[in-house]
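Review this today:
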Amino acid sequence: MEVKELGHLVLYVRDIRRSVAFYRDVLGWRQVLPKPDGDGSGPLPMPFAMFNAPSGRTHHELLLIEVGPDAAALPAGRRVGLYHFGLKIGTSDDELRAALRTLQEAGATVLGATDHVVTHSLYIADPDGNEIELYVDVPGMDWEDAELLASPPRALQL
């Protein structure tokens, strides 16, 4: 077996409307199902929303499934499981600055900004506490240089 690409992510969320507003209206994902102007019905037996990035690379890259307000929260601290997922949002710090302004205007939770030498990253939390890295690659970096990749992260000033 050989993995060809990462196909999609599936996240459980407490409130589908709140999460759709975040992923569609703040982060700019394109909702493909259920149709935003439709009646909200779809093939799953629970509320859901399916998205892809504006590039339209595949049928869907993100699926949100509502599990209700009483769902357990993500445990704090060190744990096994997903730490965060990364979304490349452009090629320059200007795009990161614009993203930061958009996030602040939307009242999103910004966790920090990091210079990883090979990438510049904003870390945010979605409405359910899932951590997301929004990043740009730093031009000219060698992703096969182990010393470069092991460089200690620094605070990023945007």
Observations:
- The helical segments are 16-26, 93-106, 146-149.
- The two ends are 42 Å apart (CA to CA).
